[in-house]
C-alpha cells in the first residue's frame, strides 16, 4: 500500500490550472491553509518578499469599480480592456492580488526575491489543489497592475506579480494534461 506521502506527491503531479473558476469558494479555514502554505516557500534571509490581498464576494465587484473609476483609467486603452478586467477580477470566487515586496539587501538580489514570491504562489496553488480546489495564476498587464497597486494601497517597494484565482473548475470533466518528461529539462551531470 502506498504511503500518504506518495499519494500526496501523486496528487501534486496531477495538478492542473483551471479557468474559468466558479463557486464554491474555499471555506475560511481552507483559505487560511492556502495562504499559510506561502510561508513554506524558500526564502533567502527570511525577507518574506511577498504580500497578498484577498478579495472575495461583493468586494470583487467593488474593486473592479474602483479600478475603472480611477483617474488613470479614464482613457480609451482601459475602456477597451474593461471586459478583460471584469473577467479577471470577478470570475473566480477568490481573487488573490499578488505582490512581490522587494527590499535592498546585500546578499539577496531582486531576482531571488521575485523567485521566492513565485515559490510562495506555487505553494498556494498546490495547497488549493490538495484541498480539492483549482487555481489559476493570471497576469496583470499594464495598466492593470498600476491601477491595482494604486487602488489597493500596495507599498512603493511592492510590485504586482499577477492574480491567483481560486475556486472550482466551471466545467466538470477535466482531462489529464501531458507533461514533459524530466529528461527534457534536466540531465544527470557526470564529470
Ligand atoms: C506569472 C504567470 C502569469 C500567467 N498569466 C497568465 C495569463 O494571464 N493568461 C493565461 O492564459 N495563462 C497565464 N499563465 C499560465 C497559467 O497560469 C497556467 O499555468 C497555464 O494555463 C498552464 O496550466 P498548468 O498550470 O495546468 O500547466 C500565467 C502563469 C504564470 C506563472
TrEMBL record:
What CDD domains does the annotation carry?
A: YdjA-like (cd02135)
Give the EC number. 1.-.-.-
Detail which positions bind FMN.
15-17, 44, 137-139
Q: Which cofactor does it need?
A: FMN
Domain Nitroreductase: residue ranges: 13-167
Q: Which Gene3D superfamilies does the UniProt entry name for this protein?
A: NADH Oxidase
The cross-references to InterPro entries, in alphabetical order and at most eight, read: NAD(P)H_nitroreductase, Nitroreductase, Nitroreductase-like, YdjA-like
Instruction: Mention one GO molecular function.
Output: oxidoreductase activity
Protein name in UniProt: Putative NAD(P)H nitroreductase
Amino acid at each position: 500500500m502506498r504511503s500518504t506521502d506518495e499519494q500526496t506527491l501523486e496528487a501534486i503531479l496531477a495538478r492542473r490550472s483551471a479557468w474559468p473558476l466558479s463557486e464554491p469558494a474555499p471555506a475560511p479555514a481552507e483559505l487560511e491553509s492556502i495562504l499559510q502554505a506561502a510561508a513554506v516557500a524558500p526564502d533567502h534571509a527570511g525577507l518574506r518578499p511577498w504580500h497578498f490581498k484577498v478579495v472575495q464576494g461583493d468586494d470583487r465587484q467593488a474593486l473592479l469599480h474602483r479600478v475603472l473609476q480611477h483617474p488613470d483609467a479614464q482613457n480609451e486603452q482601459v475602456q477597451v480592456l474593461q471586459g478583460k478586467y471584469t473577467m479577471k477580477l470577478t470570475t473566480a470566487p477568490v481573487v488573490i492580488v499578488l505582490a512581490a515586496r522587494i527590499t535592498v539587501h546585500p546578499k539577496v538580489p531582486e531576482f531571488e526575491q521575485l523567485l521566492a514570491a513565485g515559490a510562495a504562489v506555487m505553494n498556494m496553488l498546490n495547497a488549493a489543489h490538495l484541498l480539492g480546489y483549482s487555481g489559476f495564476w493570471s497576469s496583470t498587464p499594464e495598466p492593470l497592475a498600476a491601477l491595482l497597486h494604486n487602488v489597493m494601497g500596495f507599498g512603493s517597494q511592492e510590485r504586482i506579480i499577477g492574480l491567483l484565482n481560486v475556486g472550482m473548475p466551471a466545467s466538470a470533466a477535466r482531462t489529464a494534461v501531458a507533461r514533459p518528461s524530466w529528461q527534457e529539462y534536466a540531465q544527470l551531470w557526470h564529470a
